[in-house]
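step 3/5: co-fold with S-adenosylmethionine
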Amino acid sequence: MTDVAAAFDRGAASYDLLVSLNPGYHRHLRSAAAVLARLTRSRPRPVRLLDLACGSGASTRALVDACAEADRGVLEDRAEEVRTSGATEILGVDLSEGMLAQARSKTWPAGVEFRRGQVGGLDLDELGEHAWSGALACYLVRNIPSDERDAALREVRRLLEPGGWLVIQEYSVAESLAARLVWDVVSWSAIIPLGALVDRNPGLYRYLWRSVRRFDSTAELVRRLAAAGFTDIRHRTVPGWQRGILHTFVARNPAR
Ligand SMILES: C[S@@+](CC[C@H](N)C(=O)[O-])C[C@H]1O[C@@H](n2cnc3c(N)ncnc32)[C@H](O)[C@@H]1O
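step 4/5: write tokens
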């Protein structure tokens, strides 16, 4: 078991409570999931989506809701096509058994499943190479060691069908002094003390602070995505206190 898996196993039981104390956490997940749902809804066939690093299922829930919402929108325009397209399949993948147990304990619609897997070492035969319409990866990439990130992104691209989409949500403060200052203040005045109080697990939240401080700039992540073969790469930050700190990236596996 890796250190990251062990840290998340230990924090799993309190994870939902702690993120609920972060204003905007679920809103930003919904916003990233909505981007992926919209990009993958335009096709008149079953949509298969991965939630990579699904954790306790917060991002999976955002994806389920976003797909339902997007279907309602598409239904108004193209009712017949959508009715024949079949249900959405969503597979949540995570490294931590503890986080997966939290996810599995919740109620999900048909078509949602969870599986243990480490992005960067996934079994592509088992998951299906080029078999997925899209992938959501919220708070994953930073947790992959820097020297393994390029290979992990190449692996993710190989999972996507030609023309399939990847949406990443991730913290990045490397190119902004103001963002680093806000991140330091919020981490040491709120996130780490709350982690100690609620979870008795300040180590996980100190790791969160440190990993964000050390993570790639947005430009570096864009470079990695391009080097992994993705095209149509764009990114934007979120509104609110995490402006300039939290970013959403969109990238596409080129159509053949
Ligand atoms: C901060 S949680 C985010 C969970 C969820 N996406 C959300 O937004 O609530 C990060 C998750 O990434 C998982 N993780 C870290 N590295 C991973 C990897 N290489 N492959 C799969 N999961 C990983 C951890 O186990 C943890 O559950």
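step 5/5: annotate
The two ends are 38 Å apart (CA to CA).
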